[in-house]
Each structure stands twice: as structure tokens, then as C-alpha cells.
Amino acid sequence: MAAPAPELISLTSANEISPTEVVTPRKKRRWRGQLGTVVPVVWITLVTLGALLAPWLNKVPGIRLLKYDKIVAKKGLTPSAKHWLGTDEIGRSILSRLIWGGRVALAVGIVSVLVALIVGGFIGLIAGYYRGKIELVLMTLASTILSFPALILVLSIVAFLGNNLRNIVAAIAIVAIPAFARQAYAVTLAVSQREYVMAARSLGAKNKRIIIREVLPNVILPLSAYALVITAVAIVAEGGLAFLGASVERPTPSWGTMINDGRKLLVSDPSIWHISMIPVACMFLTVLSLNLIGDRVRGLIDGKESKL
Amino acid sequence: MSLSSNGRETPLLEIQNVKTHFRTKRGVVRAVDGVSLTLERGRTLGVVGESGSGKSILVRSIMGLLPMRNIVREGSVRFDGTELLHLSRNDMRDYWGKEMAIIFQDPMTALNPVMKVGKQITEGLIRSLGMSKSDAFANAEKLMADVGIPEPTRRLNEYPHQLSGGMRQRVMIAVALAAGPRLLFADEPTTALDVTVQAQILDLLAAQQRDRNMSMILVTHDLGVVAGRSDDIAVMYAGRIVEKAPTRSLFANMKMPYTEALLRSIPRLDQPSHTRLQSISGLPPNLLVQSVGCRFAARCPYAVERCRVEEPALVESDVPGHFYACHYPVGSIEWQNAQDRLTTSSVVAGGH
């Protein structure tokens, strides 16, 4: 999906290099070359909107979003015009449950990643800029957390604190913090050595100002691209937790629990494969989209840097 | 302007026996090893030397810009009569930008890629001079015009990557000049630029220096760059000054074989085509090792036994103000003998 995209981009932009158009080639770039980005963005937007608005979607005329625990029809119905994605093992609408389940994915993917981005980014920035003892303490701490197997660590935190959404989000955030810290640390190390940092210092800027004005803007870009990838990992991690039975309590749906519950049936009755495979596809598309967008963002940042 | 006790004006910058050593895992690197210089107001000093001679470190050491860790700085740096060497970063901040500023070699890396040009210039004005934002922008526009950037208003709103290399260096100069420093360091300001732009930038620096009555230290590896643009030249080698003289005297009567070799390595237009360029064989010495004798001896074609065991002191020649550190300077009888020896041996070996 992503492979042919760069070629299309270069072809279209090559056609456009004529004196009159050279000023704004980006705006004139054709949609076709951007499909690899547009489709993922549309998908992520849909999932996000669905998840955010789920409690109110009922009130919009024409939309028939059912409560996730409402039994609406016979169990195990395959997709039809009435129930677009069919019904699950006890007759709940799979589409409705997917939309409700997006809330868990969103919480895990955005809240925990955002928390980890801020905390980890701060740790890495401080360690990479000040070096010395602060660096030693902070990065040793990060490496220590990183040395635990991630899933086991998440599982034990959730098992210890109890498996509600808040604890799952917290656990995933804790595990993601050192990853962000290391990434921010590496970028900060490089950026701090750049001459513009010394130039700012030579003009009398204080450390705090240099960090905020000179270093942070150059660290936040690669870190955000990284955050998109980690968002995908966090969503999968929730699926992993569900597999071990440590995700949110039923009947609250999450994509992970839906996959796991459907999987158990798959052994006895392969004809109702859609109960597990539809949430699988949903999670797959979401993760793929996030990675594609992340790639694109990284490409934009690199492009910006190579133009310097 | 401050006057010293004997009634003479104190020089703007006076550094004595400055040493800058880096403590590394493999030992102490003596990057700058006892340098003394004086710079009067409104004058330009050229500091010349090849890569690794310590010229950039010297400049950063004078400004106190080096990282604090694992560094030994010794000696004396007096700026307008005030000792700077032992000032903390906090106290140095009063000097940075307002009293002394630096232009770096590579405008690609010395401007922040994610900050608009206007912001980079006005930051210093707002912070160190306490200007209002609109005053600062008006000032920045004037600065941009001063450094020869067309359409300054539009350019202020652009990012560095939208400017050409020469333009970026002009912006760098504007940033450095913003707070009106009395001393400007230019660390190889033209090395990263297109040859066609180099002369423009150097002329611009000279013009701004004249208009603002600044002193300037121009660091370069190219004797040609400082030839017509500095009042004095100091030649550095392996962390030391090996020759220091008024520009005219240096070119008329160079004493140090290293300076001679540097000059010979510049291609000249009056030579016939296909003349082989002279290079200085070998590499600068390892600064980790405390050397014995003249530091240039290993690469000096005229070196004799004494050069390898006894380090020559910086002595004044018969021209006042012309110092050199060589036992057998260019033009001396011993140098003449060595020259003759070299010519005969190369004839015996079959010429060149």
C-alpha cells in the first residue's frame, strides 16, 4: 500500500516543475499520490469520532447505535443489511460494540501515549541537555523499567491495581515512558550539540529558554512521529491484555476482548468466524493506519531537515 | 573608555597565557596551550591555522562558551579591563550578545531550522535590550537591510531553509550584531559558503565593523581571507601561537617556516597552469602527548636536531610587533644552509 506512493509523488511533482507553478508545488500535488495517507487519516478520524461521540450518537436521527450490552437479535448472525457486521455470540450488534470498543482503544492509544510522551519527553530532554549526574540517574531509571518484559510489567500492574480502564491506561503509560525518554534523550543529545544552541547561548539565552525555544521544537517533531507508532503498539498491547483476561471488565467492549471472546468460539464453530475476525480487521486497519501516518509524518520531518 | 594607570587606553581584549585543556578518557588534550593576544578597539585580528590547531577552541574559550565539564581553563582573559576567565555562566550572560558575539562557520546549522528568521533576530533584542516586540521587529528589519538582505519584511517571516547559504550567513551576522557587541568573533565565516559569496560576506563584515567601530577576531584556515582584511595576524599551530605580526610585516617578512608553508599551499594565479600545489606533509601533532621541542619540527623541512629537543620561545624580531617562535627563522643563515641542503638532495634524487 505504501510502496508505490513515493514513486507517484515524485512523478507528479516532476511534472509540475515549470516556472509558474514552482512556488506552491505541494498544494498542486494530486490526491492519487496521497492515497496512502488520506485513507488512513479518514479511517482514524472515523474511529475517533465514533468513539468520542458514542454516548450521543443515538440522538442523531438516522443513526441507530445500540448500547453495547443490548441484545438485539439472534446470536451469531452473519453481516446483513439490518445488522451490517452481524451479531456476536449472544446476539449483540458487532458494529455497535466496535464503536463503543473504540473508546478503550482511544483511551489507551491517546491518553496513555500522551502521558508517556509528556513525562518521558521531559525526562529525556532534561537528561540529554544537562548530562552528568541527572543523566545517569534518569536514564538508569528508564533502562531499568525498559529491562522488564513490557507485557509482563503491564499485566502485573493491572493485576495489582485491578483491571479497570484507568489502571490499564496508567500501566501502559508507565511502560511507554522509558521508550519516549530514550527517544527524546537521543534526539536531545544530537540537537544540543548543534551550533544554533551554542549560538543562542552566545547571545545570552538561559538554559531554560534554550531548552524551550531551541531544543524542544526540534525534539517534539520526531517524538510525535514516534508517538503515532507507539499509539499503535499501545492499542495492540490492550489486545494482549484481553488475551490474558486482564482488560476491561465485561460487558464493556474493547477490541481486545471482542477478539478474544470470538476466538474461543472459533474452535467449536468455524462458521461464525466473523465474530472474531471483524474486530481483528478493525484493529489491524487502525494499527496499519497509524503506522502509515507515522511514516508520512517522519518523512515530512526528514524532508524538512534535508532541505536545510 | 577606561584608562589604565599609565594613562594609556586599555586594550579591548587582552588575553595572557590562556590554556584550554580537555580531560578525556585517553588523557589530557592540550587544545590551546598558552596563548597571549591583544586586541585594540576597532581593530581586526586574523587567527590563522589548519584544522585542529585550536583556533576555534581559543575563540570559544575566550567567550566562555565551552561546556563546563572536564575542561581546564587557565590564564587571563581581560575584556575592557575586566577579568572574564573565572566568571560563572550567569555572569558571562551580561557579556554574551551585548559585549561580544560570535558568527559560526556553518549557517546551515547555526540557525534554528524550526524558528522563523525574524524571531531569531528579535529574541536577543527583546531579551538583552528589553525592547518591545514591535520595536525589536522594526530594528530587525533595519538590521536585515544593513546586512544586505533584499525585502527584509518578507524574509523575517521565512524559515532558514527558505534562504540561500549566503543569505543565511547574512542573517547570522544580523543576529550577532543585533545587541550591538563591541567585539565580534567570526569563526571561519566563509568556509561553508560558495566562493562567489565569500568576498561579499567578508566585505560586509568589514563594512559593519567600520560603521559600528567593533573589534573583530577573524578565524580562518585561509591566509588569503585575512590578507587584506586584518590589521594583525596570529598564526596558530598545535594550540600555540607560532607567529604574530602586523599583516603587512607578516607577508613581507615571514619568519616561521609553518607560515611560509601555509602561504605556499594557496594556489596562485600567476603560476603557470598544471603547477603542482604545495601541501604540508604529515599531520598536526597528537595533542594528547606533551611534546618536546618545536611542535612543527616533525613536518618542517628545515628542522635540525635542536628543533626536536628545545621548544623555541615567542621572540620579537627586528620589526617591532613581529613575533615568531622558531630557532632558525626563514631568512636566517641556518635556514639558508638547510635550504641549500634540500635543493641539492632533491637534485641528487632526480629533481621533482
Describe what you observe in this structure.
By secondary structure, chain A is mostly helical. Chain A has helices at 4-16, 25-28, 35-57, 94-130, 132-147, 150-161, 165-192, 195-202, 207-243, 255-268, 274-306. In chain A, helix 3 (35-57) packs across helix 11, helix 4 runs antiparallel to helix 5 (132-147) and helix 10 crosses helix 11. Chain A starts with a helix and ends with a helix. With 352 residues, chain B is an alpha/beta fold. Chain B contains 13 helices and 12 strands. In chain B, the strands form 2 sheets. In chain B, strands 6-7-8-3-9-10-12-11 form an 8-stranded mixed beta sheet, with helices on both faces. In chain B, helix 7 (165-177) runs parallel beside helix 8. The longest helix of chain B is centred in the middle third of the chain and has 18 residues, at 195-212. The radius of gyration of chain B is 22 Å and the shape is globular. Chain B starts with 12 loop residues before the first strand and ends with a helix. The A-B interface holds A 131-132, 194-196, 198-206, 209, 213-214, 217-218, 221, 304-305, 307-308 and B 60, 63, 65, 69, 93-94, 96-98, 101-102, 104-106, 108-115, 123-124, 127-128, 160-161, 172, 175-176, 178-179.
Structural class of chain B: alpha/beta
Distance between the termini of chain B: 58 Å
Helix/strand-derived class of chain A? mainly alpha
Name the strands of the widest sheet of chain B in spatial order.
6-7-8-3-9-10-12-11
Number of strands of chain B: 12
The rounded distance between the terminal residues' Cα atoms of chain A is: 30 Å
- N-to-C SSE series of chain B? EEEHEEHEHHHHHEHEHEEHHHEEH
Strand composition percent of chain B: 15-25%
Helix content of chain B: 25-40%
What is the tally of helical segments of chain A? 11
The best one-word shape of chain B is globular
Q: How much strand content do the residues of chain A show?
A: under 5%
**Most extensive protein-chain contact, per-chain counts:** A-B, 24 and 33 residues
